[in-house]
């Protein structure tokens, strides 16, 4: 794997570890009254594919965490961190390994069950970014790995500012497909032709104006390129775990993935593909 390159551009933890009160009432996972039914359906779709998600989705490079620390001006080690929309715990595990005092926030039943299986010693609470079940001014870092786009910024921006301490950092990031890599660009075009939408080409989620339409956060953007070499089966299971595939149903997804397997086995006769990602990081520091 090439060295990553950074380019500008109900709680289960021990009492007292995170004395955050639960949010009052119940809120649907990462949704708001302004969400469309399709958006809500996609947000819920991951719960039925949590094991597939955990086994096949890519992680994130160490250089990403280095960049977060650089922009925040403090280490993650020893910091109080909440990872929101934690899913199966891919990013949470990295933060925990970095030495952060981390708690996960996750709304989905399936994802929470998978998280607890993978990270039994890391606390997790049920909630979402629009209504954080966390105490005011309690965090040094608030992180969203591949999950901010499921929130409503009208609620999630003020909630982030509420729970962060002065000087605390909000870090949002996404693995995005590197479309300057020919085979990835061609694969994106095939997805677009079949479904009318391409996973790696859908970059609106990482636009600072979409993330924070008010401009209150003053986001700084960085990109980190990295790659992983995986079997074709892993790659197909990875893309098949995206909500675009999950909401179209098994028949349509299976048919596409069978065709895609034919394309990839011809292009990669050794059965291995190199997935290349640009991790887009948006970070803001609370005044």
The CATH class of the domain at 5-13 and 34-177 and 203-227 and 276-285 is Alpha Beta
* Main sheet characteristics: 8 strands, mixed
Shape category? globular
Q: Total strand count, please? A: 8
Q: Please list the strands of the largest sheet in the order they lie side by side.
A: 1-7-8-6-5-2-3-4
CATH architecture of the domain at 5-13 and 34-177 and 203-227 and 276-285: 3-Layer(aba) Sandwich
Structural category is alpha/beta
Summarize the structure.
The protein has 287 residues and is α/β, with parallel strands linked by helices.
Give keywords:
287 residues; alpha/beta; Rossmann fold; eight-stranded mixed beta sheet; globular
Would you kindly provide a written description of the structure presented here, covering whatever features stand out?
The protein has an eight-stranded mixed sheet with strand order 1-7-8-6-5-2-3-4. It is α/β, with parallel strands linked by helices. It has helices at 37-45, 50-56, 62-72, 90-97, 109-118, 153-163, 182-195, 208-211, 232-240, 243-246, 250-267, and strands at 5-7, 80-84, 101-105, 124-125, 139-145, 164-177, 220-231, 272-285. It has a domain at 5-13 and 34-177 and 203-227 and 276-285: Vaccinia Virus protein VP39 (Rossmann fold, 3-Layer(aba) Sandwich), CATH 3.40.50.150. Helix 6 links the parallel strand 5 (139-145) and strand 6 (164-177). Helix 2 (50-56) packs across helix 9 (232-240) and helix 9 (232-240) runs antiparallel to helix 11. The protein has eleven helices and eight strands. The protein is globular and about 55 Å long.
């Amino acid at each position: 794997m090439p060295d990553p390159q950074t380019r500008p551009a109900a709680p289960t933890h021990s009492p007292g570890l995170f004395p955050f009160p639960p949010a009052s009432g119940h809120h649907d996972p990462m949704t708001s009254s302004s969400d469309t039914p399709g958006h809500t359906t996609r947000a819920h779709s991951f719960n039925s594919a949590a094991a597939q998600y955990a086994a096949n989705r890519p992680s994130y490079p160490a250089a990403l965490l280095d960049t977060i620390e650089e922009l925040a001006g403090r280490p993650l080690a020893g910091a109080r961190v909440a990872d929101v929309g934690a899913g199966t715990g891919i990013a949470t595990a990295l933060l925990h390994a970095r030495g952060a005092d981390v708690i996960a926030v996750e709304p989905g039943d399936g994802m929470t069950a998978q998280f607890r299986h993978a990270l039994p010693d890391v606390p997790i609470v049920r909630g979402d970014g629009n209504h954080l079940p966390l105490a005011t001014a309690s965090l040094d870092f608030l992180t969203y790995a591949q999950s901010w786009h499921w929130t409503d910024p009208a609620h999630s921006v003020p909630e982030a500012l509420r729970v962060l301490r002065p000087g605390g950092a909000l870090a949002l990031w996404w693995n995005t497909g590197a479309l300057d890599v020919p085979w990835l660009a061609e694969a994106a075009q095939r997805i677009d032709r079949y479904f009318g939408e391409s996973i790696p080409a859908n970059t609106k989620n990482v636009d600072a104006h979409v993330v924070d339409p008010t401009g209150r956060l003053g986001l700084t953007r960085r990109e980190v390129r990295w790659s992983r070499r995986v079997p074709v089966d892993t790659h197909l299971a990875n893309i098949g775990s995206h909500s675009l595939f999950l909401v179209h149903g098994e028949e349509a997804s299976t048919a596409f993935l069978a065709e895609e397997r034919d394309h990839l086995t011809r292009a990669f006769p050794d059965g291995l593909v190199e997935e290349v990602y640009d991790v887009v990081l948006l970070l803001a520091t609370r005044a």
